[in-house]
Design goal:
The chain is 44% helix and 20% strand. The protein is α/β, with parallel strands linked by helices. The longest helix is centred in the first third of the chain and has 15 residues. Bound molecules: ligand 77P and magnesium ion.
């Protein structure tokens, strides 16, 4: 039977990237998605904004919602110090299976915990399961209508501290209007929009960075 898009993306990584070199994995995926087959990775343009936020926050603990094929997982993990932890949640088992192999090819397994399951079920378990006191950075890139309920759940679980940063992909396209309204009107957040484009296209999209004020 025909291969899936994630399987073809993994093939491109195994063909063109160097084992243990996360930058070559990121570049191989961007090349593939720009010149062969589009896929819903955050991409190179928004990826540079992601890089600058990760470098600025220099997080010890990161939560990523929505792993997909692991592109942003590798992109973030490559910038983390040796003992930092990136927990990434993926609901779709087929996506998770590919992401594990992409993360392994990049040599990032030590820094990454990939959890297969629903964010709503797993967010309340993060503290006990991973010995996490607080999240320094959350990257939201899963189902767009889940951004707001999961943000409220993260707050309720006491996972944020003064200065924790939420960074949300696709706030324009496909769009997360309820989430945007919430973080931009809440007294508990200082929000900033980074205008960009939908990965590998000319369509407008952007990232919203929201600092939790406590
Ligand atoms: O999280 C799951 N999907 C990816 C969420 N991400 C997106 O949906 C997403 C979509 C787009 C996008 C943009 C334009 C277009 F024409 C089509 C899609 C771009 C992005 O940058 C995304 O991040 C998921 C799946 C599933 O089957 N079960 C549980 N979870
Ligand atoms: Mg996205």
């Amino acid at each position: 039977t025909r291969s899936t898009r994630p399987q073809r993306l993994l093939g491109a990584v195994q063909k063109s990237a160097t084992r243990g070199d996360p930058c070559s994995v990121v570049n191989a995926i961007d090349q593939f998605c720009r010149h062969t087959e589009w896929a819903m990775n955050v991409g190179d343009e928004k990826g540079c904004i992601l890089d600058s936020v990760v470098s600025e926050v220099n997080p010890a603990t990161v939560l990523e919602l929505g792993t997909y094929c692991g592109y942003s997982t590798v992109r973030i993990a490559r910038l983390l110090p040796p003992h930092a932890k990136l927990i990434t949640l993926e609901f779709n088992p087929d996506f998770a299976a590919i992401a594990r192999q992409v993360i392994a090819w990049a040599g990032m397994e030590e820094k990454v915990h990939l959890v297969e399951g629903a964010s709503g079920e797993w967010i309340p378990k993060i503290k006990e399961q991973f010995g996490v006191k607080a999240l320094d950075l959350v990257f939201l890139d899963h189902w767009k209508d889940q951004y707001l309920p999961d943000t409220k759940l993260i707050e309720e679980c006491g996972l944020l501290r003064k200065g924790s940063v939420l960074l949300a992909d696709n706030v324009i396209f496909p769009g997360a209007p309820q989430y945007l309204e919430y973080v931009r009107s809440s007294q508990q957040y200082e929000s900033q929009y980074f205008k960009s484009h939908l990965e590998y296209t000319k369509v407008e999209d952007g990232l919203e960075k929201s600092v939790f004020l406590g």
